[in-house]
């Protein structure tokens, strides 16, 4: 009984840490970038600081302290997989952070409800998923809710909305590419090796827009460069990567989805308190509630599809027992100690959109999950 209580305690502790760090990084970025507060209106520079810090830490962990071993990375895999994934990863962070300059945190979270819609569209266009009427209706409900929420936004800004939506679609395309490219190569990346390979490449991609868009502005403006603020901000972003990996290792997809929804509501409420100008209206809430209903129904359909693909026709007691074991098994699949290159016993996951449970602020985590799951899919098909 004590073991069960300790396990539950650790699970809720990791979920609390994830929600705290995820909300904290978003609010911290908004505070740093906003002209009304710290006044560092250079989102590309801030993103490059995150990537540079993450790349340096992962290099020390891989090459100096040898905490983990690097994977067998050939030039072909790096050129055809890591580079395009890093490009869209850098783009999603660039556009997402730029949106903080123009629109409120609360409205940004409402727009992020479009993430399943964008992922489904990209997956269908790339041929990794098929359009179904039940999913299409849910996505239509999400879209209608976001439109209503946008109509009710007091400080609606077209530029900020376009930046955020572009970042969402860039991230959706990155998720699809992660499945298509890494799955075919059978490459397994843990969070440290993901940062080791992807962060430096993303830094290089960000240098180009930084040179043309922010370099001149930083030279003429009076910049407040406080080392401890940027250092702590980068540490929080890096810690969020690892907290998500801990959560994935102890919970299933359903729990992560519920935690993500809870985090969004908490973040919307906190942002209105911390940033008084981020006022929300009744129409905002109604629109977001409608969109959230569509997201919850979509999550239910995808989780049900996953369980249906894992469970054969059994009696009710056997089905209930296997349902519990499948949830436990999906939790263990993502744990760092349980990732085995020779494991071919994992259940099959239906599509790319099933994996859209990762926090938007740290999409690197999807690489390790998708690559391992993709190989499990191929193994189960061959069997």
How is this structure best described in words?
By secondary structure, the protein is mostly helical. Helix 2 runs antiparallel to helix 8, helix 2 packs across helix 10 and helix 4 runs antiparallel to helix 11. The longest helix is centred in the first third of the chain and has 32 residues. The radius of gyration is 21 Å and the shape is globular. It starts with a helix and ends with a helix.
What is the fold's blueprint, element by element?
Layout: H1 2-33, H2 43-64, H3 75-99, H4 105-111, H5 115-125, H6 133-151, H7 158-185, H8 191-213, H9 215-220, H10 227-250, H11 253-274, H12 282-310, H13 316-333, H14 365-382
Helix pairs in contact: 1-10, 1-11, 2-3, 2-8, 2-10, 3-7, 3-8, 4-11, 5-7, 6-12, 7-14, 11-12
Descriptive tags:
about 375 residues; mainly alpha; 14 helices; about 0% strand; disordered C terminus
In DSSP terms (H or I, runs of 4 or more residues), the helix count works out at 14
Order of helices and strands: HHHHHHHHHHHHHH
Largest sheet: none
Range of strand content:
under 5%
Structural class by sheet pairing and helices: mainly alpha
Instruction: Average the pLDDT over all residues and give the rounded result.
Output: 80
Q: How far is it from the N-terminal to the C-terminal residue, by CA?
A: 39 Å
Query: Quick one: overall form?
Result: globular
Total beta strand runs = 0
Secondary structure: helix percent: over 70%
Low-confidence stretches: 313-317, 323-361, 363-383
Oligomeric state, counting identical vs distinct chains = single chain
Radius of gyration from CA coordinates: 21 Å
